[in-house]
Amino acid sequence: MPNWLLPENIADVLPSEARKIEELRRVLLDNFRLFGYELVMPPMLEYLDSLMPVPDHEMDLRMFKLVDQLSGRSMGLRADMTTQVARIDAHLLNRTSVTRLSYAGSVLHTRPSGLHATREPFQIGAEIYGHAGLEADAEIQTLALESLRLAGLTAVRIDLCHAGIVRSILRHDEKTRGLESEIVALLRAKDLPSLQQFTLQFSAETSAALLALPTLYGDISMIEQARRVLPQHKEIATALDDLTSLAQQVGTSGVAIDLADLSGYQYESGATFSLYVTGLPNAVARGGRYDHVGEAFGRARPATGFSMDLRELARLTPVATPKSAIRAPWGREPALVELIQNLRHAGEIVIQTLPGHESDQQEFDCDRLIVSEQGKFIIKTMRS
Questions:
Q1: 94 with 234, same domain?
Q2: Which SS3 state, helix, strand or coil, does residue 381 take?
Q3: Which one, out of 251, 271, 318, 327, has a CA that is 20 to 30 A from the CA of 174?
Q4: Domain limits for position 186
Q5: Which residues contact 40 (CB under 8 A, 6 or more apart)?
Q6: Which tens digit of pLDDT belongs to each residue from 200-224?
């Protein structure tokens, strides 16, 4: 096998795409900062019990694992950064006030999440710690929607769900204990025939409620339908009230309700959301509340946040046009060196042509040229 071949679903990022990803990273992180989010940089490698503070079968399958040669303990290459940031808030910063944190970096997956997905997403996200009210959820959703707008994506739809609804249904039936993973997998797949067969072992109320969840998908009117068909538990009523409030704050025209959208169920505890754009079947961003993750690090803190894959986002944005640049001859004449330095300090791209080579850059449009005329170096516009 040639040594230049890469593993399946692992790829180099070439200049045009790399520039789009980097420009998006800068724009989004700068916008996060305008909202008051502080940047953190967790390590790529951690002990397994830190990366998975909550048992998560799906995450366990997705994560690369190895043995630390120094300690002999099991370690993992991060497949998600959310729990890492929760650890930083709970253990290292240890603040009592509201804390806003942002992050950006590569994560690794053992298997791609979709047909054309990479196994090395570039994850960017933001988290709020310390506030249990819906104000934090609304801010995170606003920030996620603003991020897609800054990336040039329009016609965004937000799907809302609430992890508390299915948790309440399962909590009221002892026969569901130990079967949560199987139930959630069937709900995610909206596999009604299999779900119907699986729920025969539960009470009539539990079975009816679980079978109703995959059908409760549509506009905001689904919330009122859910109130009629789901059990009259206090937790469910509160969850539906939360979804109503969040949908109204976003604006109901771009909101859908999907009470079986349970991605991240293992550690999410409240309202969750997914963002979709035209032409892509998978969500471009996901977020939600996860109040109990901090317990594993010694301090439970209300928490909500979102993340997205910048590589996926870059593929959805228009092709970047080449940057205007100036071509300069090779030379060390003081006047030429000074002119090039002044142009670069002013923000101009100046590319010196090395002796014996033609200039061939995909990322730059050399529309001007430095030439020597009558003993002076001047800039001329190149004819198209």
A1: no
A2: strand
A3: 271
A4: 157-260
A5: 85, 88, 101, 102, 103
A6: 999 999 999 999 999 999 999 999 9
